[in-house]
Amino acid sequence: MPKFAANLSMMFNEVPFLDRFAAAAESGFKAVEYLFPYDNPAEIVAERLQAAGLAQALFNMPPGDWAAGERGMAALPGREADFASALDTAIAYAKVIGTPLLHMMAGLAPASDSQAIATYRENLQRAADRTGEAGIGLVIEPINGRDMPGYFLNDFNRALDFIAEVDAPHVKLQYDVYHRQILHGDVIMSLRQMAPIIGHIQIASVPDRHEPLTGELDDRRIFAEIDAIGYQGYVGCEYRPAAGTREGLGWMSKV
Ligand SMILES: O=C(O)C(=O)[C@@H](O)CO
Ligand SMILES: [Mg+2]
């Protein structure tokens, strides 16, 4: 059975962000992930993580102005300086909190725009170099356009091409089963084929993005395949609880 990490951006929203660490540990989780720690000093986040006895699985680089609709900056021509500064911030937080993985969000830009592509390539290389020096893994995640209209990285094969171009062992794919199913389907075969470059996995039911075992996929079969491909990392529970986080955790004892 895979090791599960609670996603504190979607789960345990019944309590404030800093209290979600203890709530996750009390519910039996051994690790957490979340979108962003940057509203709090890194030392405070690290303190809550350690006090709860949790491992950090992953968080994202600063995405630009999230409230204004930005979803990352890596593919945004003209925002290279902001991207570089976000990278500095992410690495500084990663060192204090102790995350093994950072997720680099691409941003909203046409996937076929040559300038966006060139900017993404340059920024990915820069992020690969900096995270490599820092001893931190870097992941990129294809995201479906229904949840995030206009997101640049909206195709798994394209993500594989970008990763191959960088050709650095610490740069890998964030394989979110929810996005995979909506974008392409073929979950089991793609897990097998992509196993060597999968750096992180996330799960949610499709199409409602709720608890596993409540959607159109056979999540038990998927968890068995994740074990079969030898994946050793955490599987992030990146789902919106249908009716309360604790109330919805029953799936964990059924898989
Ligand atoms: O939306 C997802 O899926 C994620 O994993 C986030 O990190 C990006 O919004
Ligand atoms: Mg995801």
UniProtKB/TrEMBL annotation:
Keywords: Isomerase
Gene3D superfamilies hit by this protein: Divalent-metal-dependent TIM barrel enzymes (3.20.20.150)
Domain Xylose isomerase-like TIM barrel, first and last residues per copy: 21-254
One matching Pfam family: AP_endonuc_2
Organism for this UniProt entry: Rhizobium wuzhouense
Protein name (Swiss-Prot/TrEMBL): Hydroxypyruvate isomerase
Family affiliation: Belongs to the hyi family.
Superkingdom in the source lineage: Bacteria
Any GO MF annotation of the entry: isomerase activity
